[in-house]
Each structure stands twice: as structure tokens, then as C-alpha cells.
Automatic annotation (TrEMBL):
Matching InterPro entries: ATPase_NBD, MreB, MreB_MamK-like
Family under the similarity heading: Belongs to the FtsA/MreB family.
Keywords noted in UniProt: ATP-binding, Cell shape, Cytoplasm, Nucleotide-binding
Any single Gene Ontology cellular-component annotation: cytoplasm
Name this polypeptide is given: Unannotated protein
UniProt GO molecular function: ATP binding
Length: 331
């Protein structure tokens, strides 16, 4: 009996849920290759440690950018490795449910299912991330009620209004947490003339980044390479500067929420004032993002309990009761 599997193939992190076991794997979506021999050296945490620290012939790549597959071969190898890790071989080919951004094109859709099939899945089904997130957060999606989910991932932000098991209004922008990291990098380069790597930018975001003024803010020391002299240098960044630096991507996310609210039918719009909006995804953990959205939309915003896991848990629900929730799939 092959075990069915749900995969949340994210730009930043990949999570795998196995039927009857729960989440078995949660790793960064990074794979390290030797470009001379095309061997896979590491994936997940190990490969993530290598980003920006490799010799010329080793590349640590993220096979997905902006929620789309940029490198088909590498993605296929990554899915194959993931399936091998959870014990899939030639003899037990599982049914796989993969979470994809709702802004996905038909070509990208086919690329994902094809990659999964070649990697050893018997059937590959796709489910939209906001839908999976709503199921995973335990929202009453089959009721005639307005449920709004904001899913902020590494490469995409999606806002979906769900009622009666279907998406009523949807707004997706290809702006995510990586754009926040990039904005921090650009800011430090522009203001201080210092180049920092993407991992450093991510650490700054996690440590002092915020989208709305919060209490007990502090500054952080940032180490990087000065562009003029080429020497290592340390500067001090305040939380306020970081907030200013990341304003553009954060505003894009807030605008997407406002645009989605603008598409909502009036009956569902009034439900949202009572129910509130739910914030999921790793990017939703940015400090004060819920307050920022709340202040601009006048609708209460709740961060769900497990923002990172909710999407894969929702897909996991579909795997557990496969036939009942088949209608949720995209194909």
C-alpha cells in the first residue's frame, strides 16, 4: 500500500506531509549541485548553509523563483530526492498532492505535475495554496461565509476570499519575503555602500524587521563588504531604517489585500468585518504586518497558529480524506 503524500513546494521552504504520519520534512528549497558533474551534493538545510559561500564549480540554487519553476531538471531532481527521503521507491508509487500558487499558468501547472510524475508519483494533483491554507487553518470553507486568507510566501503573496468551498475573489502578486530581503540588501548598499548576502539580509529581517512601529525596538550590527575599499566593515542598522527599506514590497502586499477586498461581494464583505482576515505563510510572521494591514483596511487581521505549516496541513487533510476533498483540486 503506497502512502499518499502532500508536498508544499514553496520558493523558500518545502514541507512534506505523509498520510497517517503528519509533517515529516520541513527544509529550505535549496539544492547544491556540482556544475562539472551535475551531482547533487546537498539539499535542504545543508545546501542552505552553502548559499553565497561556494567555490565557482558548486552552485547552491533555489529551483523555484517567484513561485514558478525556473529550472525544470533541478526541480524534478529535488522532488525525487524528497520522495526518496520519505521512502518512495519503484514498487510503491504514491498519489501526490502538490500546493501551487494560484497565479500559476497552465504551462507551469503542467511542469509541476510532469516533474512529480517523473520523480515517481503515480498520480499528481495540484491544489491552490490559499485554499490549502484555509483548510489547514481550520476555517469553515464549506459554509456560505466569507473567509479571507492572505498567504505570504517567499516569492508570491496571495489574497483569496473563499466561500462554499471555492475561491470567490483572488488577488496575487509576485512579491514575497525574498523581495523584502532584496529591499534590505539594496537599502544597505545605497545608504552605506556595503554589500551584504541574502542570508544576512534575511537575518536582519527576522531580528529587527517590522512593518509597523512596535515597542522595545533595537538596532543590529550588520557586517558586510564595503564596495569602495572592498574590505569587511560593520555598520549599525536601526529598526526604523529597516522599516523604511522594506516599505515598497510591504505596500505591494497591502495593496493586494485592498484590491481583493474591493472585488468582494457586499454580503461576504460584511462577514469579513466579523470574521477578520487570516494571515498565513512564512512572510506573515514579519513583525507588525497584521497591524499594518489592519490599519489600512479597518478589518481585523489574525495570524494563524502555525503560519508556516498551515498550507501543507491543508493539503494533508485532502490526502487523508482523498475522495471527499477531491473537488478542491485544480485539474
Amino acid at each position: 500500500m503506497a502512502r499518499d503524500i502532500a508536498i508544499d513546494l514553496g520558493t523558500a521552504n518545502t514541507l512534506v506531509y505523509v498520510r497517517g504520519e503528519g509533517i515529516v520534512l520541513n527544509e529550505p528549497s535549496v539544492i547544491a549541485l556540482n556544475s562539472r558533474t551535475q551531482d547533487v551534493l546537498a539539499m535542504g538545510h545543508e545546501a542552505w548553509q552553502m548559499i553565497g559561500r561556494t567555490p565557482s564549480y558548486i552552485v547552491a540554487v533555489r529551483p523555484l523563483r517567484k513561485g514558478a519553476i525556473t529550472d525544470f531538471e533541478v526541480t524534478q531532481r529535488m522532488i525525487r530526492l524528497l520522495l526518496q527521503r520519505v521512502g518512495v521507491n519503484r514498487f510503491n508509487r504514491p498519489r501526490v498532492v502538490i500546493c501551487v500558487p494560484s497565479a500559476i499558468t497552465a504551462v507551469e501547472q503542467r511542469a509541476v505535475t510532469e516533474a512529480a510524475r517523473r520523480a515517481g508519483a503515480a498520480e499528481a494533483h495540484l491544489i491552490e495554496q490559499p485554499m490549502a491554507a484555509a483548510i489547514g487553518s481550520g476555517l469553515p470553507i464549506n459554509e456560505p461565509l466569507g473567509n479571507m486568507v492572505i498567504d505570504i510566501g517567499g516569492g508570491t503573496s496571495e489574497v483569496a476570499l473563499i466561500s462554499l468551498g471555492g475561491v470567490v475573489a483572488l488577488e496575487a502578486v509576485r512579491v514575497g519575503s525574498f523581495d523584502i530581503d532584496a529591499a534590505i540588501q539594496t537599502y544597505i548598499r545605497r545608504e552605506y555602500g556595503i554589500a551584504v548576502g541574502e542570508r544576512t539580509a534575511e537575518e536582519i529581517k527576522v531580528t529587527i524587521g517590522s512593518a509597523w512601529p512596535t515597542e522595545n525596538e533595537f538596532a543590529a550590527e550588520v557586517r558586510g563588504r564595503e564596495l569602495m575599499s572592498g574590505l569587511p566593515k560593520t555598520v549599525v542598522l536601526t529598526a526604523e531604517e529597516v522599516r523604511e527599506a522594506i516599505d515598497e514590497p510591504v505596500s505591494a502586499m497591502v495593496d493586494a489585500v485592498i484590491a481583493c477586498l474591493g472585488q468582494a461581494p457586499p454580503e461576504l464583505a460584511q462577514d469579513l468585518i466579523e470574521q477578520g482576515i487570516y494571515l498565513v505563510g512564512g512572510g506573515g510572521m514579519l513583525r507588525g504586518l497584521d497591524l499594518r494591514i489592519e490599519s489600512e483596511t479597518d478589518v481585523p487581521v489574525h495570524l494563524v497558529e502555525a503560519p508556516l505549516e498551515s498550507v501543507v496541513l491543508g493539503a494533508g487533510h485532502c490526502v487523508e480524506s482523498f475522495d471527499a476533498l477531491k473537488v478542491m483540486f485544480m485539474d
